[in-house]
Specification:
single chain, alpha+beta
């Protein structure tokens, strides 16, 4: 079903978020976007291993766990994008020589996974009470074969698209 409506308006699949689901992490959040869902667990700031310690700020590590199997090249690429986004807003200078670990577990992927991960990450950072310079969110866009742009595409819409990007 197309997500574009007459008159050029667009709509997103229904989404929701719940924070504080997990007791072990310092912060946690589940973000659901249509049938795509991601669980985020945030640990830290905590003592950093000497090899990862940064003298002027917190070291941020992002781990993306697929629903099944081991992380591959795609997960590593997405981890880097997620880490760069989080590093841009986390005020790590307030916690030098510490480590912050963000673990994102994919529960289901029905499209727009990276934006769902971004949204879960932001909610997890908030739940942990980390100092942030701003908030962020993500929305995936897909360019269809006919030149139309679809917001929040499903997995099927992503497969037939000429390309996707996250805003």
């Amino acid at each position: 079903e197309p997500l574009s409506e007459p008159g050029g308006r667009c709509r997103l699949r229904p989404f929701c978020c719940e924070q504080g689901l997990l007791s072990r992490p310092d912060g946690s959040a589940a973000f659901l976007q249509g049938d795509t869902s991601v669980l985020a667990g945030l640990y830290g700031p905590a003592e950093a291993k000497l090899s990862k310690e940064l003298p002027d700020r917190a070291a941020l590590e992002v781990l993306l766990r697929p629903k099944v199997g081991l992380p591959g090249v795609l997960e590593r690429s997405r981890e880097q994008q997620l880490r760069q986004t989080c590093e841009a807003v986390v005020l790590g200078v307030l916690h030098p020589r510490t480590a912050i670990t963000l673990v994102l577990q994919v529960l289901s992927d029905a499209g727009s996974l990276l934006s769902c991960c971004l949204n879960a990450a932001c909610m997890g950072l908030l739940d942990a009470g980390l100092p942030l310079s701003s908030l962020f969110c993500g929305v995936t866009c897909a360019l269809g074969p006919d030149g139309t742009i679809t917001l929040d595409p499903t997995a099927r819409q992503e497969q037939v698209s000429l390309g996707t990007g996250v805003l």
